[in-house]
């Protein structure tokens, strides 16, 4: 039996869909309050849903009964400063519990981390799996939670766990809608006026799922892999999205001091409304940073060729335009 944790999320749902489309009957975890993603409804006969939480050892033990492979996609994600400590605690503790249970039962794991947990390269160099985040200087709660969760997996590996770690860049895909990375497309569609100098890697959600499955089936263990299709600067990305959406591309450079004002204003508005800020301090800083990633390790390990980002962008834009026509 194959178990997918976090299967109600963007990546987890796509991974579950890919697994069942290959003829697998799988088990997926969800919280009691979670809704089954619409992309998985057609596959309900092949998916056994169980209510489980990474913070609940007993529910996890039940979910793992008869399981030989685990894809861990579950994580608590929040931009709210008030959630920082709880997010770190939840992600680390939950991962540690799952690691221990899998190790005790001899279950193989593919753990989803993030490039947020990968360090920086020297100027002009690509970031590789050998770069590691410095926990003594990092202040971003999400990055810390991902790094420390990854460390729990490495601890498990040192204790005998059969596991591999993936570090995806920005995951995009039509099934995101206007949430998560889908907000980028929706923001451009609504008339984004500014762009930043930064760059980062992007990858199709289905490619991430395929890489995870290939790694699970490869037998590779005790390794981490950056999962990224292409590095894109934000200006180029916004222009391409704008062209697909038939809107005007952002034409004004947002300088660092402008981003400083933006995140402070968003934080103030978040305090008043109680909602997560549209941009936080870390996101504002990252938008002007150049973070280009080397994907050669994963390509060599499993012989994988990534889908061009431009194709995914066109697919997402088409889906959003269709959604707009339906809603009116």
UniProtKB/TrEMBL annotation:
Residues 2-224 form the NAD-dependent epimerase/dehydratase domain. SUPFAM superfamilies: NAD(P)-binding Rossmann-fold domains. Gene3D superfamilies: NAD(P)-binding Rossmann-like Domain (3.40.50.720). InterPro entries: Epimerase_deHydtase, NAD(P)-bd_dom_sf, NAD(P)-dependent_oxidoreduct. Pfam families: Epimerase (PF01370). This is SDR family NAD(P)-dependent oxidoreductase. It comes from Mucilaginibacter litoreus.
């Amino acid at each position: 039996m194959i178990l997918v944790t976090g299967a109600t999320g963007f990546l987890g749902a796509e991974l579950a869909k890919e697994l069942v489309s290959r003829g697998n009957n799988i088990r997926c975890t969800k919280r009691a309050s979670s809704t089954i993603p619409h992309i998985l409804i057609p596959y309900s006969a092949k998916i056994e849903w169980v209510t489980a939480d990474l913070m609940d050892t007993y529910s996890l033990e039940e979910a793992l009964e008869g399981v030989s492979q685990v894809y861990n996609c579950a994580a608590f994600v929040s931009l709210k400063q008030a959630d920082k400590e709880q997010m770190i605690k939840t992600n680390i503790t939950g991962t540690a519990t799952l690691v221990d249970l899998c190790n005790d039962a001899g279950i193989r794991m593919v753990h989803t981390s993030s490039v947020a947990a990968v360090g920086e390269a020297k100027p002009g160099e690509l970031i590789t799996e050998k770069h590691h985040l410095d926990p003594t200087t990092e202040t971003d709660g999400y990055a810390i939670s991902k790094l420390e969760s990854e460390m729990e997996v490495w601890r498990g590996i040192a204790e005998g766990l059969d596991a591999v770690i993936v570090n995806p860049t920005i995951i995009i895909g039509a099934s995101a809608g206007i949430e998560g990375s889908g907000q980028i497309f929706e923001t451009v569609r609504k008339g984004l006026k500014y762009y930043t100098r930064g760059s980062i890697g992007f990858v199709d959600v289905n490619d991430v799922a395929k890489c995870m499955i290939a790694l699970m089936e490869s037998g590779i263990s005790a390794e981490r892999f950056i999962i990224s299709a292409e590095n894109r600067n934000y200006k180029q990305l916004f222009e391409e999205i704008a062209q697909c959406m038939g809107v005007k591309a952002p034409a004004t450079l947002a300088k660092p001091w402008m981003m400083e004002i933006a995140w402070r204003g968003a934080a103030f508005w978040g305090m008043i409304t109680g909602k997560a800020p549209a941009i936080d301090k870390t996101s504002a800083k990252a938008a002007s940073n150049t973070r280009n990633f080397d994907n050669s390790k994963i390509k060599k390990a499993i012989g994988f060729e990534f889908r061009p980002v431009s194709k995914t962008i066109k697919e997402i834009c088409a889906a959003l335009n269709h959604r707009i026509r339906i809603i009116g």
